[in-house]
Every structure is written in structure tokens, then in C-alpha cells.
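Hi V.,

You were right to ask for the full record rather than a summary. Here it is.
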Amino acid sequence: MHFKTVIEPFRIKMVEPIHMSTEKERRNYLKEAKNNLFLLESEKVIIDLLTDSGTSAMSAQQWGGIMMGDESYAGAKSWEKMRKAIFDLTGYDYILPIHQGRAGESILYSQLGGKGKVFISNTHFDTTRANIEYSGALAVDCLSEQGKQPALEHPFKGNIDVKKLEQTILKHGAESIGAVVLTVTNNSGGGQPVSMQNAKDVRAICDKYQVLFLLDCCRIAENSYFVAQREQAYKNVSYRAIAQEMFALSDGAVMSAKKDALVNMGGFIALRDKKIADACANMLIMKEGFVTYGGLSGRDMEALAIGLVEVFDKDYLHYRISSTTYLGDKLTALGVPVIRPIGGHAVYVDAKTFYDHIPVDEYPGHALACDLYLKGGIRACEIGSVMFGKYSESGELIPAQMELVRLAIPRRVYTQSHLDYVVETFEAVLAEKQSSKGMKIIYEPAFLRHFTAHFARLLPEYASVV
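Predicted structure:
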């Protein structure tokens, strides 16, 4: 019998209380946080959808593994377990532990980047772009045309545009290309998957021009699920085998294990090239720690090794993608414009369409994220012109390609009733959407401004949260 309800394939053994704040309280909380949801204290949030990074609930097996953590400085048994789990999955000989993805990006792109270098991706995420640009290199996105159309139904909207990829290589010269970085799934592009065929096409172009091909693989298991469901040749292939094939196509990978390894801290760099790996290892020792722990405790490495196996469980992945789709379909039925089809780790609301009365230079995505918090205590993340916008030489905003609000769902944390509460909050926001106003930035840092910028509402009726 086929059941319509997809239940959580786990039992809950421990709970954490949620403070059910009032809207009046949240107005004061948001004012204290300078209208930046990143600056809120977590206890002041009811449903936290800011990120799926490091927010997973670990399994009983992972917690048991933590008790086995070997905290030796060099050559710990926990490192050997982690190294073997990564090697078995990726097939790469050179593996470096890191405490999270951006640390790996900093190390790797400091070695591959520099002035005159160019990195090409389907879509670089915020920290990836920042680390590349900080090195003096240029980060170029070549997202497929389908991926630029939020409402379009297409199975692999995360794909890189292979024609533009080749044109970009020819424009800058193959010798200037630091690497092609394929992000799977494509986070900034709406959590959309990348097809195996697209990865094969990228491999062929990189071979043609002798260019390094890397994966940003923090959601490789979720991407593998979509490949199995949507790419005919892989419908009977296991999710793990699909991931292994995609790793086999590339020259290396960076992983924030805080996503699809189901841990709260950890990651790795894995490479085929010894010369690059040696250069990264030297930097790792200076910035992270010795090459057999890289900023991680033995406990972290034990949990990571177990998580890399658990994440490919077919029941878990079916539940994971189904629960995200459940929220996205409910919002679609309400009339909320979201990126379709629904991605793996998050639902992305098209804030430009939702708040079509707010111009892009008044940051409709950030306005919507703040309204969701005020109405329901939901913390979401703007992925639009606050995160990716730049300024022209004259100081004018160069907006992002899309104005999105990401509802990133932590793994194994929230139940269906939590997601139903999110839907009800959107109903409340929809009812008053024409009265919402835009935002202005009153302070911003030079890099990654969305983390620490201060904002103000543009009209006096919101003075209580300015």
C-alpha cells in the first residue's frame, strides 16, 4: 500500500524548548538586532530557517561515536575513520580535514587564485565568491538559462551553461582559469540539482582546455537523489553510487560537512593532484591545525565519518526531499511565488514577485525576511541584492540576478506541524503584503555585508523596529 503521508524515519529521543515570543516582543528584538536576522539571538527565534548548515540533529549512532573520539594531536584513530569514509566516497587520494567549508575555500583558493585568475561556476555561493575575490581573482557565474526563471519547471535548473562556460574560458584564456567549480546542489540558484550529464559535459570541456574541475559537494547526497529521480539512466542506481560517479568525473572537491554529513562542525578538501594538496597542507597547518585534525576534535571526526554513511539512506533522503517539497507545494497553493520545482534543502521565495511594489534598491528580499520574523518568529535568509549586490563606480546598486528569501530546513529537526506553522505565517504576511515597505542599509562592511550590516525601514510606521 502506498501511503500519502511521508513520516519522519526516526523517533525523537531528546527535545529542546522553543520560546513562543509575541509580535510585540519580536519588534523589540529586531530593533535591537539592527533589522539584521543574523544578529538575533537564537532563543528569540521560533522556527529557525536561516540555514541548514551545522543545524542538523545528529543520530544516536553519531552521539555514540562522539564518545569514541580520539583526541590525539597526530594520527588519531578518529582521523583514520574520517579519512577512510571520505576516500570510500570520493576516491581521492589526498584528503585534508577542515572545520567548515569556508576554511577549505580560503585554503584552496589562496593557492589556486590570485590576481589574473578566473573561477567559473554554475553559481558561486557567498563565501566561495568572497574567498575567490579576496585572493584577487575573478568569480564568474554561468548558470543555465532555465535556472534564471524562477517559475519554470525544469528537472535540472542548477546546471551550468556549458556553452557560456566554454565562451568564458576562451574569453579569459585557459591558462587564466583557476578552476571550474560545480556546486551540487546549486544553493544560490534555488537549491536546484545538477544532472550527471551536465557534470560529464563540464568534464569534457575541462579536458579540452586542460582546466581543473572541482565540486562544491556539501549537498551531494541530495543532488544524487534528484539524479536518480529525474535522469532516466540512473533510476536504478543507488544514491551513493551516483555520488561516487560524480566525484570520479572531477579533480577534487570541497565539502562543508555541516550539510550532507549531518554534523554540526566539519568538512574536508579532497584532491587528486599531490602538488596542489601539498600546498594546501602547508596552509592548513598554519591556519587550521595539523593535517590529521585540521581544526576538528576527534569527536567531530567520528560523527562526520558516520554521517557520510547515514546521509545516503534511501528512507532518510526520501523523507528529506519530500518534507521540503511539502512546504514548497503548500506555499505555491497559497499563491506565494517560489522557485519551481522545489529544491532539496530549502524553499526559495521569489521576493521580487512577492513584493512587486518594493524596488530592488529597497531590498524586497530582506523586507520579506524581516516580515516573516515579525509575524511568526521565523528566521529566514535573504539571497538577493543584500547578499550579492554590488556598487557601480558612481555608487549605484548593481542588483543581484534574483531577489530570493531562502527557507533552509535543518535536517531531522522540525516536524510537519512546524512547517504548517510556516505556511500560516505566510498567510498572515500575504494578508498585509501591500503595506510592507522596503529597507535601506545604514552600515555595511567591505565583505559579506549580509552577516553584519545594519538596516532601517523606509517609512515612519515602522519606526518601532528602526
